[in-house]
Amino acid sequence: xxxxxxxxxxxxxxxxxxxxxxxxxxxxxxxxxxxxxxxxxxxxxxxxxxxxxxxxxxxxxxxxxxxxxxxxxxxxxxxxxxxxxxxxxxxxxxxxxxxxxxxxxxxxxxxxxxxxxxxxxxxxxxxxxxxxxxxxxxxxxxxxxxxxxxxxxxxxxxxxxxxxxxxxxxxxxxxxxxxxxxxxxxxxxxxxxxxxxxxxxxxxxxxxxxxxxxxxxxxxxxxxxxxxxxxxxxxxxxxxxxxxxxxxxxxxxxxxxxxxxxxxxxxxxxxxxxxxxxxxxxxxxxxxxxxxxxxxxxxxxxxxx
Length: 305
Prior knowledge:
By secondary structure, the chain is α+β, with helices and mostly antiparallel strands. The protein has two domains: 4-42 and 137-264, Alpha-Beta Complex (Lambda Exonuclease, Chain A), CATH 3.90.320.10; 63-115, no CATH class. It has helices at residues 10-15, 22-25, 32-36, 44-57, 59-65, 72-80, 100-113, 121-135, 138-145, 187-196, 199-214, 242-265; strands spanning 4-6, 66-69, 83-84, 90-91, 117-120, 148-149, 152-157, 160-164, 168-170, 175-182, 221-228, 235-239. The strands form four sheets. Strands 6-9-10-11-12 form a five-stranded mixed β-sheet. Strand 11 and strand 12 (235-239) form a beta hairpin. The longest helix has 24 residues, at 242-265. The N and C termini lie far apart (83 Å).
């Protein structure tokens, strides 16, 4: 199947359930049942990440989808007595957001915002500062501006319909970039986080689909740019090694086979799928780290029998 490549929205991409993406595919590593009963609840961290990605990679779309809500000026004016009531008495509002004038202004702002997502001034200042920090590095800026962002690919691998949506890609250099926000972008912390989040599966699947569609026989380089969300907004650039990609390929190929079996059989087993007998019984033992040599000193023991 030749890939369908299109510039659809993030919402359209995620709502297309005919194709499986890497996030859903990784659920199979826990169990097919976890994939089947998958529910995705958008967290504040996920919302921030989406906003950050849009601001960095698609600034023209950011203005259409987000509205920066800044009430600092009217709050200051209400506190300083810039408004007067019907009788000409100056208004000093200790709690400006509770004031009638503020509420009327707020309603007007929400009308202007319309269906757009409101962003606080603090959040907007934060993502601006993060972008300035990123783009102060010449290569980070190149990696995030020298190509195309947020293209969706719908294709097929070994009879399974698969989808990917690279954050950014530079086709002429065969580079795929994954932009991440994180708490700690240091090498030790990020490498652990990437293993916990199974980023090697993402990297391998994305790299293989892009190679298949754009450069058969010529592999792609997969790069992570991880930026901390707290000041000073430090970031790190990581390249996926051949070992990182190889392990990802091994795992995603097995998970795709399990997904195909589940689709064909309509059977989505739980943890018993990993059991080597038909009864679903798994034998357990005490792990080595939990086995200790106990020695007791009895104060009443004088050493005599």
